[in-house]
């Protein structure tokens, strides 16, 4: 039989051995697997970043379109200048030919060949007119050549800028596609319960709107509830945040920019306490998301992929950057 002291010695040895083995094993991660709330938060963060990239891409498209307009105008100016240069050069050639043929006499020549004082005066008048015509034609030709040179320079600069903008637009599109792919992976990992909650249409009740353009715009936006969000979509069956707002005001006969950046500068600024139906609410420091106020508490917006156009609490959407009133 083993004595009590011997048993204590054996137990102590076993404990010591276990401690040594545990120290040799790799330590388990301290953090647990992300839960549903963390996954949803990650998805929303990725979608917020994607929203900014989407607006950047749309702005690059607008910039390219504007620059293309400048390029077209420059090409038109160049064609006009070249035509004027060609016509004036022909006029100068005719005057030069007349001069070379002896039509441009000096005052002494006119005096020597004149039959009378009146004949001399007539000849001098013709000489002065011809000289003035020649000088004017030469000046116009010089101006036309300079205009053609300037138009050529402008057209070349516009062409180079257009190429850079096109490359920038392609880059933004590639960045957006990658961001969306990352967001989709996270979305696919969300539970069906969370996905179904995201797909809810929310408040679909009839809502009274005020008179005027703001009310008409709000009525249009409310009618889009339940339609899906698609990056870069211009409707009518799906929207992104800024296309919804642009189309809503277009339906009321008011033109505003396509991007949330442009909409953040439309109309006039109002404070949070002054918000009323139809006001445009732009979110985040990047101004990458936009919604339309239903009243002083709620807003309707195209939120993000996986979420339909719906009504939400104004302050729950995100940090407000600026509020713009288009009418009034």
Automatic annotation (TrEMBL):
A Pfam cross-reference name: NLPC_P60
Signal sequence, start to end: 1-32
GO BP, one annotated term: proteolysis
Coiled-coil blocks: 36-101, 148-193
Domain NlpC/P60: 211-328
This protein's UniProt keywords: Coiled coil, Hydrolase, Protease, Signal, Thiol protease
GO molecular function: cysteine-type peptidase activity
InterPro entries: NLP_P60_dom, Papain-like_cys_pep_sf, PG_Endopeptidase_C40, TAT_signal
Family: Belongs to the peptidase C40 family.
Stated name of the protein: Cell wall-associated hydrolase, NlpC family
Species name: Lentzea albida
